[in-house]
Amino acid sequence: MDFTESELIKLKRSLRYLRDYCEKRKYKGYDPYDVLLSKVPFVKFGKWPPILAIQFFKRFPLNFRPLIGVPKSLNPKALGLFLKGYCTYKAHPDAELKARDLFEKLLEVQTPVEKGMAWGYPFPWASPEKYLPAWSPTSVVTGFVAQGIDAYYRAYGDERALDALNQACIFLSEGLHHTDEDEFYAISYSTVKPDFCYNASLLAAQTYALTYSHTGQSQYKSIAHRALNSVLQRQKSDGSWNYSENLETGKQRVQIDFHQGFVLDSILSICKSLNEFSEASEGALQKGFEFYREKQFSNEGQAYWRLPERYPSDIHHQAQGLITAVNYFDYTNGKMAGLMAKKIAFYALNHFQDKRGYFYYRKHRNFTDRTSYMRWGNAWMFLAMSKLLNSYEKQEKMHGAVPEGAKISY
Fold first, then answer.
1. CB 3.0-4.6 Å disulfide test: which of 27, 139, 290, 306 passes with 204?
2. 386 vs 15: CA distance, rounded Å
3. What is the total count of domains within the chain?
4. Among the listed residues 386, 357, 379, 404, the one whose alpha carbon sits nearest the alpha carbon of residue 14
5. Residue 148 counted as domain residue
6. Over the chain, what HEC string results?
7. How would you classify the pairing of strands 131-132 and 125-126?
């Protein structure tokens, strides 16, 4: 992964502007799915009005949330991403202090559950399949928070973090639905009902695997291993995965987007944490990454929407693509992964970043939605760029010094 001096300065300056923007707002902001926090009681009008309201405000290019009383909120998932970013790239000023503050804030905003620790989104969420009240704990939010807590424990050794990881595993075991049938194992997205969303089941499995890597608890290893194999078996011949599978009918939901990156990252993390790379997992990673790189990004580094659609180009996928490329580069030291990371990063900086530091939501074919979403875009890009610069500087320590002119002040 090679950068010129001017490119490295641009990356560091961009990250500094983004960090300043988020810290100034104390990590609070709007979210694409937060409209049900509005003073307008959408949920009182039946099943479909809240669903339609979420979809309308998520897609409309002007942000009317202030007009209908939607407050800026503190999102646990965003806090987990920021925490992981500070722990990944310690060149951030006061990184340890800020990481500790974020960890303690996560302890404050956890969702009360009967057993263990869990986290959810701070807004109600509605879909045709289910309705989740605000703060409903999920495997997805808890999984990403757990990744931040794991990074914090590895970086600074705070024993409270290890306890939190164990408590998260207790929630995953006691609060979620586990479908266990012969060679099949799936962990549910929410507490509502059993389901099999591939990335959600893997995020829960990843939490078990990360905790096992610290504690050696064999039951966590077994669950992670079985859940991983169930997803590996569902990889398609072209290397991609669909989004989910109906447990009753076996019908898969076709949706190929940024979730491909989630799946690849979780597979890699689980295998590392369990210290188990099999022929099946190695092959799935290679084939899956090749599909992701070749089919879901342009030669210029633009992330495509949902295949076969290329627009809108979404900052969430830009960030996820960068994270996955860096993770795969760190694993393989492959030139193609390094080049992919570089292209995605500079496409995001050149096309999505506002001069005030934040990142735009989406670029459509003929216009740009310039809404700033703290979790969906800014937190993800903070983590992505932190990982990119950390990977580069680790590489330089092995092979040479960082260009002197690139050592800009933070």
1. 139
2. 8
3. 1
4. 357
5. no
6. CCCCHHHHHHHHHHHHHHHHHHHHCCCEEECCCCHHHCCCCHHHHCCHHHHHHHHHHHHCCCCCHHHHCCCCEECHHHHHHHHHHHHHCCCCCCHHHHHHHHHHHHHHCCECCCCCCECECCCCEECCCCEECCCCEEHHHHHHHHHHHHHHHHHHCCHHHHHHHHHHHHHHHHHCCEEEECCEEEECCECCCCCEEHHHHHHHHHHHHHHHHHHCCHHHHHHHHHHHHHHHCCCCCCCCCCCEECCCCCCEECCCCCHHHHHHHHHHHHHHHHCCCCHHHHHHHHHHHHHHHHHCECCCCCECCCCCCCCCEEHHHHHHHHHHHHHHHHHHCCHHHHHHHHHHHHHHHHHCECCCCCEEEEECCCCEEEEEEHHHHHHHHHHHHHHHHHHHHHHHHHHCCCCHHHCCCC
7. antiparallel
Q: Is the pLDDT of residue 229 over 90?
A: yes
Parallel/antiparallel/unpaired status of strands 184-187 and 196-197: unpaired
pLDDT tens digit sequence for 33-65: 999 999 999 988 899 999 999 999 999 999 999
What pLDDT digit, counting tens, does each position of 292-318 carry?
999 999 999 999 999 999 999 999 999
Comparing C-alpha atoms, which of 259, 323, 252 is closest to residue 288? 259
Centroid of chain to Cα 22: 17
Q: Which residues contact 53 (CB under 8 A, 6 or more apart)?
A: 35, 36, 38, 40, 42
Q: Cβ atoms within 10 A of the Cβ of 59, count?
A: 11
Q: What is the pLDDT of residues 153-187, one digit of tens each?
A: 999 999 999 999 999 999 999 999 999 998 899 99
Whether 270 and 282 have beta carbons less than 8 Å apart is answered as no
Residue 383: which domain range?
A: 1-26+311-410
How large is the average pLDDT for residues 100-104? Answer: 98
Asked whether residue 155 is assigned to any structural domain, the reply reads: no
d(CA 372, CA 353): 10
| Inside any domain, residue 298 | no
CA atoms within 13 A on the CB side of 155: 22
Residue 104 CA to residue 312 CA, distance in Å, equals 37
Q: Are 65 and 38 in contact (CB under 8 A)?
A: yes
Would residue 14 count as lying in a domain? yes
Any idea which residue has 């990356």 for tokens?
Answer: 11
Task: Determine contact, residues 175/137, Cβ cutoff 8 Å.
Answer: yes
pTM of the full predicted structure? 0.95
